[in-house]
Specification:
The complex is a heterodimer. Chain A contains 4 helices and 8 strands, in the order βαββαββαβββα. By secondary structure, chain A is an alpha+beta fold. In chain A, strand 7 and strand 8 form a beta hairpin. By secondary structure, chain B is of the alpha/beta class. Chain B has a single domain, classed as TIM Barrel. Chain B contains 9 helices and 8 strands. Classes of the chains: A alpha+beta, B alpha/beta. The interface between A and B is medium-sized, with 26 and 28 residues.
Chain lengths: ~150, ~210
Protein backbone atom coordinates (compact mmCIF):
# COMPACT_ATOMS: atom_id res chain seq x y z
CA UNK A 1 0.00 0.00 0.00
CA UNK A 2 1.39 3.39 -0.97
CA UNK A 3 1.71 6.07 1.70
CA UNK A 4 0.26 9.41 0.74
CA UNK A 5 2.30 12.54 1.44
CA UNK A 6 0.82 14.73 4.24
CA UNK A 7 -0.65 17.29 1.83
CA UNK A 8 -2.61 14.61 -0.03
CA UNK A 9 -3.93 12.88 3.05
CA UNK A 10 -7.56 13.38 4.01
CA UNK A 11 -8.31 15.75 6.88
CA UNK A 12 -9.90 14.17 9.90
CA UNK A 13 -12.25 15.22 12.66
CA UNK A 14 -12.71 13.64 16.06
CA UNK A 15 -15.92 13.19 18.06
CA UNK A 16 -15.90 12.69 21.82
CA UNK A 17 -18.76 10.56 23.07
CA UNK A 18 -19.91 8.99 26.29
CA UNK A 19 -20.78 5.31 26.48
CA UNK A 20 -23.82 4.82 28.68
CA UNK A 21 -24.12 1.14 29.47
CA UNK A 22 -24.10 -1.11 32.48
CA UNK A 23 -21.28 -3.27 31.10
CA UNK A 24 -17.68 -2.30 30.51
CA UNK A 25 -17.11 -2.66 26.75
CA UNK A 26 -13.63 -2.72 25.23
CA UNK A 27 -12.51 -0.32 22.49
CA UNK A 28 -12.97 -3.07 19.89
CA UNK A 29 -16.55 -3.75 20.98
CA UNK A 30 -17.34 -0.04 20.85
CA UNK A 31 -15.86 0.13 17.35
CA UNK A 32 -17.93 -2.86 16.19
CA UNK A 33 -21.17 -1.27 17.40
CA UNK A 34 -20.28 2.02 15.75
CA UNK A 35 -19.17 0.42 12.47
CA UNK A 36 -22.38 -1.66 12.31
CA UNK A 37 -24.58 1.39 12.73
CA UNK A 38 -22.57 3.40 10.17
CA UNK A 39 -23.01 0.55 7.64
CA UNK A 40 -26.71 0.19 8.49
CA UNK A 41 -27.37 3.90 8.01
CA UNK A 42 -25.12 4.82 5.09
CA UNK A 43 -24.15 1.51 3.49
CA UNK A 44 -20.67 0.26 2.73
CA UNK A 45 -19.94 3.07 0.25
CA UNK A 46 -20.94 5.67 2.83
CA UNK A 47 -18.88 3.94 5.52
CA UNK A 48 -15.83 4.04 3.23
CA UNK A 49 -16.29 7.80 2.79
CA UNK A 50 -16.87 8.44 6.50
CA UNK A 51 -13.90 6.23 7.40
CA UNK A 52 -14.94 5.68 11.04
CA UNK A 53 -12.57 4.46 13.74
CA UNK A 54 -12.35 4.55 17.51
CA UNK A 55 -8.98 6.06 18.37
CA UNK A 56 -9.20 6.31 22.15
CA UNK A 57 -11.35 4.86 24.89
CA UNK A 58 -11.09 5.14 28.65
CA UNK A 59 -13.84 4.28 31.11
CA UNK A 60 -17.11 5.62 29.83
CA UNK A 61 -15.57 8.02 27.29
CA UNK A 62 -14.32 7.32 23.78
CA UNK A 63 -13.12 9.31 20.78
CA UNK A 64 -14.20 8.39 17.25
CA UNK A 65 -12.49 9.56 14.07
CA UNK A 66 -14.05 10.40 10.70
CA UNK A 67 -13.28 12.25 7.49
CA UNK A 68 -13.73 16.02 7.74
CA UNK A 69 -17.22 17.04 6.61
CA UNK A 70 -18.86 13.83 7.80
CA UNK A 71 -19.11 14.69 11.50
CA UNK A 72 -22.91 15.00 11.34
CA UNK A 73 -23.17 11.57 9.72
CA UNK A 74 -20.94 10.05 12.40
CA UNK A 75 -22.98 11.68 15.19
CA UNK A 76 -26.18 10.32 13.61
CA UNK A 77 -24.62 6.85 13.42
CA UNK A 78 -23.55 7.06 17.07
CA UNK A 79 -27.07 8.15 18.03
CA UNK A 80 -28.67 5.01 16.58
CA UNK A 81 -26.52 2.61 18.60
CA UNK A 82 -28.77 0.87 21.14
CA UNK A 83 -26.69 -2.15 22.14
CA UNK A 84 -23.07 -3.01 22.89
CA UNK A 85 -22.24 -6.70 23.39
CA UNK A 86 -25.93 -7.48 23.84
CA UNK A 87 -26.34 -4.98 26.69
CA UNK A 88 -28.61 -1.94 26.26
CA UNK A 89 -26.42 1.11 25.61
CA UNK A 90 -26.35 4.64 24.25
CA UNK A 91 -23.50 6.64 22.76
CA UNK A 92 -23.94 10.30 23.65
CA UNK A 93 -21.91 12.70 21.48
CA UNK A 94 -20.37 15.48 23.53
CA UNK A 95 -17.99 17.48 21.35
CA UNK A 96 -16.29 17.60 17.95
CA UNK A 97 -12.75 18.80 17.33
CA UNK A 98 -9.79 18.62 14.99
CA UNK A 99 -7.43 17.20 17.61
CA UNK A 100 -7.62 14.36 20.10
CA UNK A 101 -5.83 16.43 22.75
CA UNK A 102 -8.50 19.15 22.90
CA UNK A 103 -11.20 16.51 23.26
CA UNK A 104 -9.36 14.74 26.08
CA UNK A 105 -9.40 18.06 27.98
CA UNK A 106 -13.21 17.95 27.89
CA UNK A 107 -13.41 14.59 29.64
CA UNK A 108 -14.77 15.01 33.16
CA UNK A 109 -14.01 11.88 35.19
CA UNK A 110 -17.04 10.94 37.26
CA UNK A 111 -16.39 9.13 40.51
CA UNK A 112 -18.78 6.22 40.94
CA UNK A 113 -19.88 5.45 44.46
CA UNK A 114 -21.60 2.21 45.47
CA UNK A 115 -21.32 2.57 49.24
CA UNK A 116 -23.84 5.37 49.98
CA UNK A 117 -26.83 3.23 49.01
CA UNK A 118 -26.10 -0.52 49.09
CA UNK A 119 -27.24 -2.22 45.89
CA UNK A 120 -27.18 1.04 43.94
CA UNK A 121 -24.51 2.68 41.82
CA UNK A 122 -24.39 6.46 42.25
CA UNK A 123 -22.69 9.08 40.08
CA UNK A 124 -23.60 12.66 40.93
CA UNK A 125 -27.38 12.92 41.16
CA UNK A 126 -27.84 9.80 39.02
CA UNK A 127 -28.48 6.41 40.62
CA UNK A 128 -28.61 3.06 38.83
CA UNK A 129 -30.01 -0.08 40.35
CA UNK A 130 -28.13 -3.00 38.84
CA UNK A 131 -29.99 -5.89 40.41
CA UNK A 132 -30.68 -8.56 37.80
CA UNK A 133 -33.78 -9.91 39.60
CA UNK A 134 -35.88 -6.75 39.35
CA UNK A 135 -34.30 -5.62 36.07
CA UNK A 136 -32.18 -2.48 35.70
CA UNK A 137 -33.68 0.72 37.07
CA UNK A 138 -32.60 4.28 36.50
CA UNK A 139 -33.36 6.72 39.33
CA UNK A 140 -32.08 9.84 41.08
CA UNK A 141 -30.96 10.41 44.66
CA UNK A 142 -34.30 12.12 45.36
CA UNK A 143 -36.16 8.99 44.23
CA UNK A 144 -34.16 6.87 46.68
CA UNK A 145 -34.91 9.27 49.56
CA UNK A 146 -38.60 9.14 48.60
CA UNK A 147 -38.55 5.31 48.54
CA UNK B 1 -37.98 26.74 25.44
CA UNK B 2 -36.21 23.69 24.03
CA UNK B 3 -38.62 20.81 24.51
CA UNK B 4 -38.43 17.07 24.16
CA UNK B 5 -42.02 16.63 23.07
CA UNK B 6 -42.61 13.07 24.19
CA UNK B 7 -41.08 10.73 26.74
CA UNK B 8 -42.99 7.74 28.06
CA UNK B 9 -42.48 7.80 31.82
CA UNK B 10 -45.26 5.31 32.58
CA UNK B 11 -45.29 2.47 35.12
CA UNK B 12 -43.76 -0.06 32.71
CA UNK B 13 -40.69 2.16 32.20
CA UNK B 14 -37.53 1.34 34.18
CA UNK B 15 -36.70 5.05 34.44
CA UNK B 16 -38.31 7.43 36.91
CA UNK B 17 -39.68 10.79 35.81
CA UNK B 18 -36.98 12.60 37.80
CA UNK B 19 -34.26 10.63 36.00
CA UNK B 20 -35.86 11.53 32.65
CA UNK B 21 -35.71 15.19 33.67
CA UNK B 22 -32.11 14.88 34.87
CA UNK B 23 -31.03 13.26 31.60
CA UNK B 24 -32.98 15.87 29.63
CA UNK B 25 -31.13 18.62 31.50
CA UNK B 26 -27.76 17.05 30.59
CA UNK B 27 -28.97 16.78 26.97
CA UNK B 28 -29.67 20.52 26.81
CA UNK B 29 -33.47 20.55 27.17
CA UNK B 30 -35.42 22.99 29.32
CA UNK B 31 -38.75 21.18 29.14
CA UNK B 32 -40.09 17.66 28.62
CA UNK B 33 -43.59 16.32 28.06
CA UNK B 34 -44.18 13.13 30.02
CA UNK B 35 -46.85 11.01 28.38
CA UNK B 36 -49.17 8.94 30.61
CA UNK B 37 -46.98 9.56 33.66
CA UNK B 38 -48.29 8.47 37.06
CA UNK B 39 -46.12 10.99 38.93
CA UNK B 40 -46.92 14.68 39.04
CA UNK B 41 -43.68 16.67 39.30
CA UNK B 42 -43.81 20.18 37.81
CA UNK B 43 -40.05 20.76 37.70
CA UNK B 44 -36.81 18.91 38.41
CA UNK B 45 -33.12 19.76 37.79
CA UNK B 46 -34.15 22.99 36.05
CA UNK B 47 -36.33 21.14 33.56
CA UNK B 48 -40.06 21.85 33.58
CA UNK B 49 -42.19 18.75 33.16
CA UNK B 50 -45.51 19.01 31.34
CA UNK B 51 -48.10 16.28 31.54
CA UNK B 52 -49.16 14.66 28.31
CA UNK B 53 -52.00 12.35 27.38
CA UNK B 54 -51.86 10.00 24.45
CA UNK B 55 -55.19 9.15 22.87
CA UNK B 56 -54.99 6.03 20.74
CA UNK B 57 -56.93 5.38 17.56
CA UNK B 58 -60.55 5.22 18.67
CA UNK B 59 -63.94 5.82 17.10
CA UNK B 60 -65.33 9.34 16.76
CA UNK B 61 -67.42 9.58 19.97
CA UNK B 62 -64.87 7.86 22.21
CA UNK B 63 -62.18 10.18 20.86
CA UNK B 64 -64.24 13.33 21.58
CA UNK B 65 -65.03 12.04 25.10
CA UNK B 66 -61.33 11.37 25.75
CA UNK B 67 -60.41 14.90 24.65
CA UNK B 68 -63.15 16.46 26.79
CA UNK B 69 -62.17 14.46 29.88
CA UNK B 70 -58.53 15.54 29.67
CA UNK B 71 -57.69 17.92 32.54
CA UNK B 72 -56.65 21.47 31.71
CA UNK B 73 -52.92 22.04 31.29
CA UNK B 74 -52.35 18.60 29.79
CA UNK B 75 -50.81 18.32 26.35
CA UNK B 76 -53.07 16.15 24.20
CA UNK B 77 -51.45 13.78 21.69
CA UNK B 78 -53.57 11.77 19.29
CA UNK B 79 -52.35 8.68 17.47
CA UNK B 80 -52.81 9.30 13.75
CA UNK B 81 -55.05 6.98 11.79
CA UNK B 82 -56.64 7.10 8.36
CA UNK B 83 -56.99 10.39 6.52
CA UNK B 84 -60.58 11.23 7.55
CA UNK B 85 -59.78 10.53 11.22
CA UNK B 86 -56.69 12.76 11.04
CA UNK B 87 -58.77 15.62 9.63
CA UNK B 88 -61.26 15.26 12.48
CA UNK B 89 -58.42 15.20 15.01
CA UNK B 90 -56.76 18.31 13.63
CA UNK B 91 -59.98 20.35 13.65
CA UNK B 92 -60.94 19.28 17.19
CA UNK B 93 -60.44 21.95 19.82
CA UNK B 94 -58.16 20.79 22.63
CA UNK B 95 -55.92 18.56 20.51
CA UNK B 96 -52.36 19.85 20.43
CA UNK B 97 -50.30 17.24 18.63
CA UNK B 98 -50.77 14.47 16.08
CA UNK B 99 -48.36 11.59 16.58
CA UNK B 100 -47.62 8.17 15.06
CA UNK B 101 -47.02 9.55 11.57
CA UNK B 102 -44.47 6.80 10.80
CA UNK B 103 -47.20 4.13 11.00
CA UNK B 104 -49.52 5.83 8.56
CA UNK B 105 -50.41 4.21 5.24
CA UNK B 106 -49.42 6.12 2.11
CA UNK B 107 -51.83 9.03 1.68
CA UNK B 108 -52.72 9.09 5.35
CA UNK B 109 -51.55 12.69 5.58
CA UNK B 110 -52.23 14.70 2.46
CA UNK B 111 -51.96 18.36 1.42
CA UNK B 112 -55.47 19.16 2.69
CA UNK B 113 -54.70 17.72 6.14
CA UNK B 114 -51.44 19.70 6.14
CA UNK B 115 -53.30 22.92 5.28
CA UNK B 116 -55.84 22.25 8.06
CA UNK B 117 -53.03 21.60 10.55
CA UNK B 118 -51.49 24.96 9.63
CA UNK B 119 -54.84 26.77 10.06
CA UNK B 120 -55.62 25.11 13.40
CA UNK B 121 -52.01 25.39 14.68
CA UNK B 122 -51.91 21.64 15.43
CA UNK B 123 -48.44 20.17 15.58
CA UNK B 124 -47.18 16.99 13.96
CA UNK B 125 -44.76 14.93 16.04
CA UNK B 126 -41.75 13.33 14.42
CA UNK B 127 -40.80 10.53 16.79
CA UNK B 128 -37.04 9.89 16.51
CA UNK B 129 -37.24 6.52 18.27
CA UNK B 130 -38.67 5.23 14.98
CA UNK B 131 -35.43 6.22 13.24
CA UNK B 132 -33.30 4.70 15.99
CA UNK B 133 -35.15 1.37 15.72
CA UNK B 134 -33.71 -0.44 12.64
CA UNK B 135 -37.03 -2.22 11.97
CA UNK B 136 -39.01 0.97 11.42
CA UNK B 137 -36.17 3.19 10.16
CA UNK B 138 -36.82 3.04 6.40
CA UNK B 139 -40.55 3.71 6.65
CA UNK B 140 -40.01 6.48 9.18
CA UNK B 141 -37.37 8.23 7.07
CA UNK B 142 -39.56 8.22 3.95
CA UNK B 143 -42.70 9.35 5.84
CA UNK B 144 -40.82 12.11 7.66
CA UNK B 145 -39.34 13.36 4.38
CA UNK B 146 -42.90 13.63 2.98
CA UNK B 147 -44.13 15.45 6.10
CA UNK B 148 -41.16 17.82 5.89
CA UNK B 149 -42.08 18.67 2.28
CA UNK B 150 -45.64 19.49 3.42
CA UNK B 151 -44.27 21.54 6.34
CA UNK B 152 -42.12 23.60 3.98
CA UNK B 153 -45.15 24.36 1.82
CA UNK B 154 -47.93 24.86 4.39
CA UNK B 155 -45.93 25.89 7.50
CA UNK B 156 -47.79 23.82 10.12
CA UNK B 157 -45.88 23.30 13.37
CA UNK B 158 -43.46 20.39 13.30
CA UNK B 159 -42.26 18.96 16.61
CA UNK B 160 -39.29 16.68 17.26
CA UNK B 161 -39.53 14.15 20.07
CA UNK B 162 -37.20 11.45 21.32
CA UNK B 163 -40.10 9.09 22.10
CA UNK B 164 -37.92 7.50 24.76
CA UNK B 165 -39.29 4.86 27.10
CA UNK B 166 -36.10 4.84 29.21
CA UNK B 167 -33.22 7.24 29.79
CA UNK B 168 -31.04 5.39 27.24
CA UNK B 169 -33.51 6.40 24.53
CA UNK B 170 -33.10 10.11 25.15
CA UNK B 171 -30.86 12.02 22.75
CA UNK B 172 -29.17 15.42 23.02
CA UNK B 173 -29.82 18.39 20.75
CA UNK B 174 -26.81 17.76 18.49
CA UNK B 175 -27.84 14.15 18.00
CA UNK B 176 -31.44 15.12 17.29
CA UNK B 177 -30.27 17.60 14.64
CA UNK B 178 -28.02 14.91 13.12
CA UNK B 179 -30.87 12.38 13.07
CA UNK B 180 -33.22 14.97 11.55
CA UNK B 181 -30.63 15.64 8.84
CA UNK B 182 -31.11 12.02 7.71
CA UNK B 183 -34.49 12.93 6.23
CA UNK B 184 -33.37 16.30 4.91
CA UNK B 185 -34.15 18.66 7.79
CA UNK B 186 -31.76 21.57 8.12
CA UNK B 187 -30.21 22.71 11.41
CA UNK B 188 -32.46 25.80 11.49
CA UNK B 189 -35.59 23.73 10.94
CA UNK B 190 -34.53 21.28 13.66
CA UNK B 191 -33.98 24.15 16.12
CA UNK B 192 -37.40 25.58 15.27
CA UNK B 193 -39.01 22.14 15.68
CA UNK B 194 -37.44 21.74 19.12
CA UNK B 195 -38.95 25.05 20.24
CA UNK B 196 -42.32 24.63 18.47
CA UNK B 197 -44.28 23.27 21.47
CA UNK B 198 -44.37 26.68 23.16
CA UNK B 199 -46.05 28.20 20.07
CA UNK B 200 -48.65 25.41 20.01
CA UNK B 201 -49.55 25.64 23.69
CA UNK B 202 -49.70 29.43 23.78
CA UNK B 203 -50.25 30.66 20.23
CA UNK B 204 -49.65 34.30 19.38
CA UNK B 205 -52.85 36.33 19.34
CA UNK B 206 -53.71 38.81 16.61
CA UNK B 207 -53.99 41.58 19.19
CA UNK B 208 -52.13 41.36 22.47
CA UNK B 209 -52.32 43.74 25.43
CA UNK B 210 -48.72 44.53 26.30
CA UNK B 211 -49.38 47.07 29.09
CA UNK B 212 -52.64 47.87 30.79
CA UNK B 213 -53.32 51.39 32.07
CA UNK B 214 -54.56 51.52 35.63
Amino acid sequence: MSVLPPTLRENRRYVLFRIITLGNPTQKEVYRSMADSVSALFGDAGAAEIHPAVVWSEGEYAIARCTRGYEQSLIAALAVVTKVCGEPAAFRSLATSGTILSLKKKVIPESIDDTTYPGYLCAGKKVNNLSKENGHRYLTRDDIIKE
Amino acid sequence: MITDACVYANDSSNTTLRRFALTAASCGFSCIIACDSAEDIPEYAGVSILKGKLISRVTGKAFLDAVRKTPAGTVVFVQAGENSFNRTVITTKGVHLLTGIADLPKGGFDHITAKMAAQQNTGVVLDLSRIIDPKTRRTALSRYAEILAFHRKFRFPLVLASGASDCLGQRNITEIAALAALFGMTKGEADAALCAVEGILSPKKTVEIVEEES
